[in-house]
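User: quick one
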Amino acid sequence: MPAVRERPVPRVHRPPKAPPGRRSGRPPRDLWPYALIAPAIGGMLCLLVHPLVRAVVISLQDFRLRQLISGDAEFVGLRNYRTLLSDPRFWEVTGRTFVFMAVNVTLIMVISTLVALMTERLRRVGRTVVLCSLVLAWAMPVVAATTVFQWLFHSEFGIVNQSLTALGFGSFDRYPWFANGTASFTILVVLIVWQSVPFAAVTLYSALTTVPAELYEAARLDGASGSRVFRSLTFPMLRPIFMLVFSLEVIWTFKAFVQIWVMTRGGPGDATTILPVYAVQTALSSQRYDLGSAASMITVVLMSGVLVLYFRQMFRQEDDPR
Amino acid sequence: MKYRLLAGVSAFVTAAALSACSSGAESGDGAAGVTPVDVWLMRDSVSAAFQEEFTEGFEAAHPEIDVRIQIQEWDGIGQKITAALASNDAPDVIEAGNTQVAQFAGSGGLLDLSDRKDELNGGDWLKGLAEPGSYEGRQYGIPYYAANRVVIYRKDLFAKAGIDASAITTREQWIDATTELDKGGTQGIYLPGQLWYALAGFVWDEGGDLATESDGRWEGALDTPEALRGMAFYARLQALGKGPKDSDEDDPPQAEVMAQGQVAQMISTPGGANVVVEKNPELTGKLGFFPIPGKTARTPGAVFTGGSDLVVPAAAAHPDAAVTFIKELTGDAWQKKLAVAMSYVPNRTTLASAVAGDPGASAMAAGAANGHATPNTPGWAAVEAENPVKDYMTAVLTGGDAAEEAARASADITRAMNAGS
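Assistant: Done. Structure below.
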């Protein structure tokens, strides 16, 4: 709570009409900047750090519905983590989470790179059309998009079944997509890729426009093919942006929760249960808030692990003498 | 000056944000001398007209109490109630599904109302509501109303097919009649693949159960031969219409499907008929009711006794006013009005005559004679939240191996029921 006590007293007697931009004369103890960022810091402490600390504490306690209501919970050390790690179902879910993330991130990176490369080569009208479509898809609210996908694949009234049947695939008449684990998983992947490509493609496209045209010309004069130009010129130059987009997509797909919860609730069976869904199921359906928190903590650690591994790999490659 | 003001504001915002972390806002009481009672009732528990009539009548009789009723949706209600019980700003009265009370009572979040039992006519309560409302011998849930499922049918379509609905007393007759109706553009019955309350009834008919207890440990029992026979019957019936195999009665709402006019029957609480007529006034007077047929003409089909209890959170700010509210709503006068208005079974056996003239309610009462409950244990709520039964039904209806799927579903039920304890 420092902001309450630390008033910008020294500023009061200063003539208010001091020319803007001349900051050198100010004493270093000036607290004005701190007061300005205090609300942001306070908000973060309240909305991010407080729940995180609370989740860590709960994951070390025996915390169920009774404790949630009465408020006093007992510390049990690492018991919840031991319970989780010895549960085969948890490992199944973890494995599925990694498959889900790998499939999604690969598809997102490949498709968005291709879209970005294509957009750069288009003329003005085509480029505007592509960028507008990307932004529109991007602007679609997550729950709305998910609901639309759910309707598309509805067994009785869905347009996908109707179209497939009309095209002569009689076996898709009233085909229940969400009763089949693999089908549900695939539909979710399509949905998440569709939702994530716009951001990645627009970011990569704007990065592509910063590569000087002379470099491409020179490469082409040297006889480099299209893929060679991408490998030896475009990708190395844009490596930081690729890294940024990659890590953001890893984070986003790892914690893809809303789409799954709205569409399948992790079912049928466990076919679409990934770690965040598992954590919510454990906490809210079984009222085991302690195990749910522990699962969330493990998710955070695993996700950071993936990113650290990836970055180390990248930096090592960069340090290598080429 | 301007800067100082800005700094002050930002400091204030920060302080407010930080203090909001630690404590919820205090709820203010109404005007002096008037006690507000916050009540959560469920969607379709009362109609808007009944709610208004009741609020006016209650406040006229108790001018010192200000009733504030909020209507909640069934979807996700368990989590909402949990959050309310854990907060220090809980409503004073909550309507909870009868199968949910055990879980909340077991957690210590509800007020023990055992010593108010006589005052509330506890001796005559319906068993199907009073038993799930008690936990370890103490009464936490006060019976509010009961309802069970019946068959709602189209009188005109039955007449056209030359079928007498009152003659349908066994399952086989029911299947024959439905097969007869399922012709042309008409669906014999609209039965979505995941109406698990109906499946539960067929399983109980065969002598099976959803889960069984031995030595305090619950185990899923869908893989017993009895339960498998129940599922086989469900599949036969489900095939006599176009109900989607992968969704439940709310997706799309089955009353709206019936309102479109091509459905001859559906399994629903009698209140569903009101929704059908509301969506399609042309069907007024064309809907009839009969109890779900059993295996023999002597016993009606087993049904799940659904319904609601009223509970008072331990954290309620005005428990006395809350009990006054419950006493009125569950008292003779309002129970009779509610039962007639909403086609429900009143909360006490002595009031059953109130709905004798109502065709929906009398069909319901006939079925209620063979009423069953879901396992009365806090663990059952976890099963309903995850609902492996629904996945099982879809898997079997779409061609899965019944025995294999049943074994898997039973294992899931066992895990869910024992995970919380």
